[in-house]
């Protein structure tokens, strides 16, 4: 293996002469540099003592987040296949299109009790979305890097993994490409690229798709990877949507099923358990801020208890307790992986608390007060993204004021 890597590295060094400044392929140096630094350690290193060195660089940080997303990705594929198999077992028509043909060619049996078959069927929907997300996002990254004559960084790696988790399994693939390109371009690149953006690119992509193509992102039909029309007793709407429309809709629902993730919803948001495993990894490695997560939790609980006390006969969402809000919709995914984005969130420790509390309060306001849009987590995070720099500014000014007063005393 070392011999193979050494040979590849030697070939890369030979190719580098064609991409350096003044060479014929100078314009495409960002593409060469991306592949070289992805496989090997960059040859340019700091040799003086004027820089702070840390083992946790951008590439390692992104790798930790991807590892933390692993449980959610696996469960996303399983639950997508499980829900499709469940619909088919209740009498729905077989799947149409290439997914069904490939599944049958592999000897698949429609059985929701078989873990591997559910995982395989779900992968037939998740993997294509993941691949076209890479095409749309990385293509946008490469084009902007070539235009700016800058290096391509690893910032898209996490965005690439997050966007498919925020989408329903039946969304057309061309929409995924358009939405991803929009999110990367207008959520990050127009502000200068990774580290300069104040909006979360993955949520920007989802927001664009939600408002541009609402029929494919909301309602009953987007959440099941099968044709279940005409099947008695099978409801495609998410539990959160049912809770907003029908009083006591959650009375006969299982909280544990929702916590585990065996419900309808965007592929990566259903399992709070899988996302919680990722939270443990982020907190232990100090990549994700526990202060932000705790702040979102505090804000959600406080506002939920307040709404529970107010009550409303016309809006059933007022009666939904906080422990249900935490396992429905994108609350867990947003709290653990979106709100903790180190670029678009608050930077100071105190600012992270207020930033998280603001998200928790805002998500409850959107979910409860506006029953026409029962989700809320996406809008709450994007809203607080815009206020994160302001929160840090006031925290820093307050710290300076205290130090000046302490020095004067």
Q: What is the 3D form?
A: globular
Multimeric state: single chain
**Radius of gyration in whole Å, from Cα?**
23 Å
Return residue spans where pLDDT drops below 50 for at least 5 consecutive residues: 227-234
Structural class: mainly alpha
**What's the main sheet like?**
none
Secondary-structure element series:
HHHHHHHHHHHHHHHHH
Q: How confident is the prediction overall: mean pLDDT?
A: 80
End-to-end separation in angstroms reads 65 Å
| Total of domains | 2
Q: Please state roughly what percent of the residues sit in beta strands, choosing from under 5%, 5-15%, 15-25%, 25-35%, 35-45% or over 45%.
A: under 5%
Percent in helix: 55-70%
The number of helices is 17
What is the number of beta strands? 0
């Amino acid at each position: 293996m070392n011999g193979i890597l050494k040979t590849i590295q030697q070939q890369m060094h030979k190719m580098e002469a064609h991409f350096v400044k003044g060479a014929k392929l100078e314009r495409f140096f960002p593409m060469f540099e991306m592949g070289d630094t992805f496989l090997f350690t960059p040859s340019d290193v700091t040799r003086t003592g004027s820089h702070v060195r840390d083992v946790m660089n951008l590439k390692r940080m992104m790798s930790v987040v991807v590892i933390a997303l692993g449980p959610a990705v696996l469960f996303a594929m399983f639950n997508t296949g499980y829900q499709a198999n469940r619909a088919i077992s209740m009498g729905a028509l077989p799947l149409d299109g290439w997914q069904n043909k490939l599944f049958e060619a592999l000897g698949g049996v429609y059985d929701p009790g078989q873990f591997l078959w559910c995982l395989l069927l779900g992968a037939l929907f998740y993997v294509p979305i993941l691949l076209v997300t890479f095409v749309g996002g990385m293509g946008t990254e490469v084009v902007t890097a070539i235009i700016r004559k800058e290096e391509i960084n690893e910032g898209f790696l996490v965005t690439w993994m997050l966007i498919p988790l925020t989408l329903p399994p039946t969304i057309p693939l061309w929409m995924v490409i358009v939405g991803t390109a929009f999110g990367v371009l207008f959520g990050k690149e127009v502000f200068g690229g990774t580290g300069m953006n104040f909006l979360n690119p993955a949520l920007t992509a989802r927001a664009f798709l939600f408002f541009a193509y609402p029929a494919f992102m909301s309602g009953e039909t987007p959440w099941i990877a099968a044709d279940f029309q005409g099947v008695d007793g099978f409801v495609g709407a998410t539990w959160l949507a049912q809770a907003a429309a029908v009083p006591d809709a959650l009375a006969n629902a299982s909280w544990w099923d929702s916590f585990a993730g065996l419900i309808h919803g965007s592929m990566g948001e259903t399992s709070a358990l899988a996302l919680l495993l990722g939270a443990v990894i982020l907190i232990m490695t100090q990549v994700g801020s526990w202060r932000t997560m705790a702040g979102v939790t505090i804000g959600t609980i406080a506002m939920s208890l307040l709404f529970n006390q107010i009550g409303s006969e016309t809006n059933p969402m007022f009666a939904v307790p906080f422990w249900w809000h935490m396992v429905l919709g994108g609350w867990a995914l947003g709290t653990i992986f979106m709100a903790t984005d180190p670029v678009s969130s608050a930077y100071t420790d105190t600012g992270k608390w207020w930033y998280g509390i603001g998200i928790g309060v805002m998500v409850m306001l959107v979910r409860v007060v506006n029953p026409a849009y029962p989700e809320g987590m996406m809008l709450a995070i994007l809203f607080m993204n815009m206020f994160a720099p302001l929160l840090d500014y006031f925290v820093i000014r307050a710290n300076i004021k205290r130090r000046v007063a302490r020095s004067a005393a």
